[in-house]
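Subject: Predicted fold for LRC43 protein, 322 residues

User T.R. writes:
Posting the sequence so we have a shared reference for the thread.
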Amino acid sequence: PGSVSAAFQEYLRHLGLQDFPCGLGSWNKSCRNARRSPRAEPVGLEDTVPPGEETPEALLELLRDQHSPWALPPDCSPQDRLLREVAVLAPELLRGSRVFQVVKSLRILDKGVEEVDEGLLRFQQLEELILSANHISRVTSAHLPRTLKVLELCYNAVGDLQGLCAQPPLELQHLGLGYNRLCGPSQEKHLTVDFWPNLVSLDLSFNSLTDLLGLVSQLSTLQNLRILVLQGNPLALIPTYRGFLVDSLPKLSILDDIHIWPDERQQFQGLARQPELTRSEARVVVSIGEMKGLPDPKAFQQLKVGSEGPVITYSYCVTYEF
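User M.O. replies:
I've generated the structure tokens; pasting them so everyone works from the same file.
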């Protein structure tokens, strides 16, 4: 599927919400008839269930027992379990467009999604959207539900934040953009309180951000920011990288998955007022170990001048990619 909506429909088919033991069928026919009649008594007791049908309790047990062929795998999400159980207890809630009112968390991982389409606006209660390991290069913020609090886009191909910041969901608390294609310094301007007034957690790890001073000047406007991940960017190679961030963002609690303790903050106090120490260059030392199968260049330097023997020249090229 190319869009989030198409991937969601495939996800519903995979859950089998209309198939036994979920949904409405011969296994709970009297239950369906009871729902059609507002005066009917609810069916739930063993002795009131007609032969050939199952109680809601028995159907739920088929979903929860790990030895059952209808059980979900242990690593499934809480949202998967919730939808399956709702499909047993109140299957009418998942009919047609009603399913969009139930979903609060949507996880679509590694499904080849390329487009965050406007169909997402049907999820009027959606709070968490995780689209990791797909092929998304651009996000149109107008297609994101206003109720969103968590947006995870790691392992995609996002290289520009302009579309995401046009009309961002103002209640967002976590934004995950690790392992994408963000390059500095053009993207730092999109990481301010004007776009993310309630942001608590920000993951920008393993991109191509290089301007530490410019980035910090923008992040310092995020008054609610407590968790920041920047490791894997070229700017993290700067010798004073961690100390400068710790002193520049006094409300930060965790940097690169490491807690900031009071003694560390005391150690780097005043470093933010010395930007000249934050040089935009780094020294990298690369050591090459033993290499086999290559002729030794020294053996060809012993040829005498004027020798009539053939001379063979070898040249080697070593490329470093950062």
